[in-house]
Amino acid sequence: MKGHAFIKWAGSVVVLAALAAGVFFIAQPKVEAPVKAQTVQQAYQTVKVQRGDLTATIGVTGTVRSSQTAILPWQVTGVVQTVPVKKGDLVKADQVLASLDPTSLPQQVILAQASLSAAQDNLENLMSTNQVRANAELALARAQKAYDDAKKARDNKQYQRASQETIDIAQANLVLANHALDDATTIFNRNKNRSSDDVVFASALSQLAAAQQRYDAAKYNLDYVSALPDPIDVQTADALVDVAQANLLAARLEWERDKDGPSDRDIAAARAQVNAAQAALNQARLAAPFDGTVTVANSKVGDQVTPGTVGFEIDDLSHLYVDVEVPEADIAQVKTGNRVSIQFDANPGKVYRGTVTDISDIGRNISGTVNFTVTFEINDKDKVIKPGMTVSAEITTSLLKGVLLVPSRAVRNIGGASVLYLLKNGIPTPVTIRKGPESGGSVQIAAGQVSEGDLAVLNPAVQP
What we know:
Elements: H1 2-20, E1 24-30, E2 40-48, E3 50-66, E4 69-73, E5 78-82, E6 90-91, E7 96-100, H2 107-156, H3 164-191, H4 199-226, H5 231-258, H6 264-282, E8 285-287, E9 292-297, E10 304-305, E11 310-315, E12 320-327, H7 328-331, E13 339-344, E14 347-359, E15 364-366, E16 369-378, E17 390-407, E18 411-414, E19 417-424, E20 427-439, E21 442-447, E22 455-457
Antiparallel strand pairs: 1-2, 2-22, 3-12, 3-17, 4-11, 5-7, 5-10, 6-9, 7-8, 9-11, 12-16, 13-14, 13-17, 14-16, 15-16, 17-21, 18-19, 19-20, 20-21
Helix pairs in contact: 2-5, 2-6, 3-4
């Protein structure tokens, strides 16, 4: 009896210890099939289903690379004469990094200088001729317009503004207006001594004013329709036509002389000769193809180089990127702009920040697994980070708030379904669920007959 009492007490101590540690163990008999009279005590480790926040992430690894990289090999044999830069220097596009001694260059490179001068002269002559042709064409168009305008102005001065019939009518109107003015003047003179408020005086004055206006209008109209161009104006207009005609003739002669300028094909061929000669000369030097940093500087003054000898490497370190592979099952969750947490072995105590900048549209099948390349930029880079370093990162795909969570190890895969065992009335009961995102050892219960506070069994007796 004392022995049995000790066993019960020890079991209570174990249970209390488990409660103190935050792990729940519940004694429950295991029922065999068929049911036997004899039972065995079985302990179940459980955890409550709780609501919480879950940051869904995808773990990836990759290697740091620069925004742009260029490896610059020598293309001809020769002896290095100058190296004005060193490793770590910032350089601009087209800046010369090193050059070869001209006397050590192959003959075809040396002769390229003479070829370049001749090709440049040829292109300049062609372009000059083409410009002359364009100027001649423009001068001809302007001369033609000036002639047309002068001729039109001269023609306008050769004709009266009205016919003789119109002039005669205007003359008759003036005679009538003058006669009416005389009559109105006579009537007014008879009554001009009357009082100003006299009706007869007012009528005589009004008739006189109206007659005067009609006379003035008739006279102006006759003067207008009778006027002929001034002889000096006509002479001037003739002179301007002669000058414009002479200029037009000169412009036509100039155009005839220059219209057969170089063709586009001739100009393209001349440019190609210049480019070919320049390319041959460029072999005697190495220049930066873009703004960047000299990360490799192999060439030194006096070195004997041959085609293919790597002289320099240039990297644009203003932006650092990491390319990682994401399985096709997860790629739909990744979006440009997603935040990335980054860690390096070189600085294990610091977590760097990044942002997804690109997602490949085409997956690659490697050993039966389709992966998509995802690129993210390191936002807070420092001097510790260098191209070529290995990266461990987590891409944050979503942030879920107040969702049902259980430990990932509580969910079993049975027959292709996700099953969670809940302790109900002391018996582990399987419940089919649909899993959501998983992170940090927890998984979201996206669907299923599960409620907050349910006890999830971590060690059910049923094996998946």
